[in-house]
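Example record

The entry below shows one chain as it appears in the dataset: sequence first, then structure tokens.
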Amino acid sequence: MPRVVPDQRSKFENEEFFRKLSRECEIKYTGFRDRPHEERQARFQNACRDGRSEVAFVATGTNLSLQFFPANLHGDQRQVPSRDYVDFERETGKVHLKAPMILNGVCVIWRGWIDLQRLDGMGFLEYDDERAQHEDALAQAAFEEARRRTRDFEDRDRSHREDLETTAGPQPWLKHGQR
């Protein structure tokens, strides 16, 4: 089953959902809302250092569970995200974040920053052309493999039926041309 849609760029550029989220807009950290603010601040920073966090686009209410690792990694517990993905040093009091993902069948990168005191900031989605090409190639390969396996199955089935017909001989209970 392919993880991406056939024309990712078109979907990203034309769907209202992606058009809204591709513009920089307000975001908020959504984790541990039932905990005191100071605890939430500490948990947010720890989660970022572990390579994950939950954020929401305020205007649309879209919630995302983000992983701050390159697309080919899946957040192994022993990994620490690089500064390319989690940067506490770029701006004092803020953390800049980057999270590649497949969202609604489209390869995107979520980028944004969050104020470490207020736990809000700005973020947006951008189309990930490099990963989209890679995923398209994987989808095409999977399609070709499925096509090959179907052809192999049909060839074996046809061969089996022909073998049965030659070994079974005439079948008088079937009328000529019927099976």
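Notes for this example: The longest strand covers residues 94-103. The first helix runs from residue 8 to 14.
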